[in-house]
Amino acid sequence: MHNGKIKNYDPLKGFGFITREKGREVFFHWTDIISKHEGASAYPGLSVSFELDNTKKNRARKVSIVGAE
Residue 25: which of 39, 12, 48, 64 has the closest Cα? Predict the structure, then answer.
């Protein structure tokens, strides 16, 4: 698992980017978000953990919300 913070997210387009603690920023789509809370939303500054997609370069999968700053 990798850790980072959401850099930006566009709810109308359904995607955004995560700034990683180490390495390049990665793309994520709303379908990649795993949420325990119905209606949870992604927003800048939100801490997340995620896996990297092995088939697509710089793509996050299984994005879990860790907490807010």
Answer: 48
Q: How far apart are CA 42 and CA 15, in angstroms?
A: 9
Report the alpha-carbon angle 7-18-65, nearest 5: 100
The residue whose two tokens read 């390049």 is 24
Residue 5: strand pairing partners: 19, 47
2-67: which CATH topology?
OB fold (Dihydrolipoamide Acetyltransferase, E2P) (2.40.50)
| pTM for the full predicted model | 0.85
What is the per-residue pLDDT across 14-34, written as a single tens digit (0 to 9) for each?
999 999 988 889 999 999 988
Separation of alpha carbons 9 and 16, rounded Å: 4
Q: Which amino acid is at 17?
A: F
